[in-house]
Structure formats: structure tokens, C-alpha cells
Amino acid sequence: QKHLLGISHLNPVEITELLDRAEAMVDISRQPRKAKHSLKGRTQINLFFENSTRTQSSFEIAGKRLGADVLNMAVQTSSVKKGETLIDTAATLNAMQPDVIVVRHAASGAVELLSQKVACSVINAGDGTHEHPTQALLDALTIRRNKGRLNGLTVAICGDIANSRVARSNLLLLGAMNARTRVVAPKNMLPTGVEHMAAEVFTDMEEGLKGADVVMMLRLQHERASGKMIPSVREFYHFYGLDERKLAFANDDAIVMHPGPMNRGVEIAPTIADGPRSVITEQVEMGVAVRMAVLEALLANGEAS
Ligand code: CP
Questions:
Q1: According to the annotation, is 104 in a ligand binding site?
Q2: pTM (two decimals)
Q3: Which of 18, 159, 171, 238 is deepest in the core (most CB within 10 A)?
Q4: More confident residue, 172 or 28
Q5: Rounded Cα–Cα distance for residues 55 and 61 (Å)
């Protein structure tokens, strides 16, 4: 493939190949001295129109570990602030002959649109509420390393599902890999058409967590919420925040995930986030390996195909 725009464009064989490639990158991702040079002479531009800590920095580290020249476009100080459009920005960057542009944008579909306007590969680093494919891949790698498989696992994805591109990409990936998926949320945080999704739907946290192998908490996305928060943050934590009492409903060996950034005391108790069942730090670590794998898969074999 030339681009990675979403999990919806990948089949189970391609997902498995990327996870296997990422697994083989884990050692290298941890040790700069073992860096590979498969992207030597290639240029990677990171173009983030929305804030990011994990995704942008791990894409930068991933590109550098593979020997690419990496440029982080400072959107806040770019001509975007003078009114330059997404398409004109893309055309300008395209004229500098990059090999890959990694894009995050607040509008669903913006990354796909940009991919149609440039000659190079494009990777979706999160577009609106649509998809965040490398997050789903790093989540899958983390689950596979802890549970040995994806097939047949029960994964409960909890919280602000409607606004979450992470949930959407995870549901697509986990469904493709034959995991059993659940969404757990108050009614107003479930997406329209949830009944057509290949996931069991729960509005009660205890019911939704019963028998879960993986509990994936999501960030409450105030910036995408329209109007007043209902329930209030306090009510949300009471009914849906993951604490010791609610986690006891999941399987004894269930792991706890969160894509970050976390609102501690809102969707997750600090004791759980930092506790023995949390794999949140490992998720961040796997982000570098997965992004190395994606960059190499798209670029390493001569021209992107
Ligand atoms: N999980 C995630 O996308 O984090 P950032 O917003 O920090 O990149």
C-alpha cells in the first residue's frame, strides 16, 4: 500500500504483517545504537494541526531510528496561521519532494483528502473522530504481547466512544482479528448507528466489564463535546470511571489500557493507571516500534507502491 489512512483499508493478513514487523522492531526501537538505515536518504514530514505528545514524538523517533531525515512542521508558526488552506499547504510541502507526510487534523476525512493532493505516502496520525490507525496497531501489539493472541479475547472499550477515533480504529482492527468487542458508555456517548457496529453495547460499566480480558479506557474529549457535559464529570467518574471496585468485575488477569493523554480521576483512578495491571506505559513504548514498522512497510522497498 502507498498510504496508511485507516484500519478500514487493511485486511487481517496486512494487520498481522505489520504487527510482526513491529514486534521485530521492538529491540531496535529501545536501543538507538541498534538503529537501522532502511530509510536513509528519505524525508519524512510530520504535519500536526492538532496537539500531540505521544504520536508526534514517536513518529519522529521512529523515522530517526530508521535513518530518515525528519522535519516537524511547526503549524502554530506556519503560514496556516495566515490563512493558507490544507490543500495549499499540502501542495507546498509536496513541492519539496518528501517521501512521506504524517498528518493529524481535527477534521474527519482531511488526511484522505490531503493524500489525493500529494505524490508521496501519507500516514493518518488521527483525523477528527474518524480513525487513528497507528494507535490501534500499537494497542493490538501491546495486547498480543501480554495475552499472546487477539483472536477470541473479550475487549471492553469504555467511555467517550462517540468522539473517539481510537475506539473506531480499535473496533475495526479487533473485529478483523476475531476478538470479541464491547463498547461501554452512557447513551449520549455512544455513536449514532452503534447498533450496526460489530460490538456488544453496554450502558452499565459492571455488566460491560464482566469477563473482559482487556479493559480499554478512553479520554473524555471535552474539546469535541457539544455544549454542557451530561453526565457531569463527577457523575461520569462515579458511574464510568475505572476504579478498583469496577475493575473487579473484569477477569482477574485483565489488563488495563488507555491511549493517553489521561484525565486522572475522570475516566481512570490514578491507582489503576499506575497499578500492576496497567500496560499504559508499554502502549507508549510500542508506539515507536509500530510507527517504525509502518514507515518501513510503506517506504523501504524502493518507491512506495
Ligand atoms: N494517543 C495519542 O494519540 O496521544 P497524543 O495525542 O499525545 O499523540
A1: yes
A2: 0.95
A3: 159
A4: 172
A5: 10
Q: Is the pLDDT of residue 86 over 60?
A: yes
Angle between helix axes 133-147 and 280-299 (nearest 10 degrees) is 120
Is 106 a pocket residue for ligand 1 (Cβ < 6 Å)? Answer: no
- Whole-number Å distance, alpha carbon 302 to ligand 1 midpoint, is 30
* pLDDT at position 227 over 90: no
C-alpha 166: how far from chain center: 5
Distance in Å, CA 50 to ligand 1 centroid: 10
Q: What is the pLDDT of residue 276?
A: 98
Cell of 21: 514487523
- Given a contact cutoff of 8 angstroms between Cβ atoms, the answer to whether 126 and 107 are in contact is no
Q: What is the DSSP string of 38-73?
A: TTTT-EEEEEESS--SHHHHHHHHHHHHTT-EEEEE
pLDDT at 229: 62
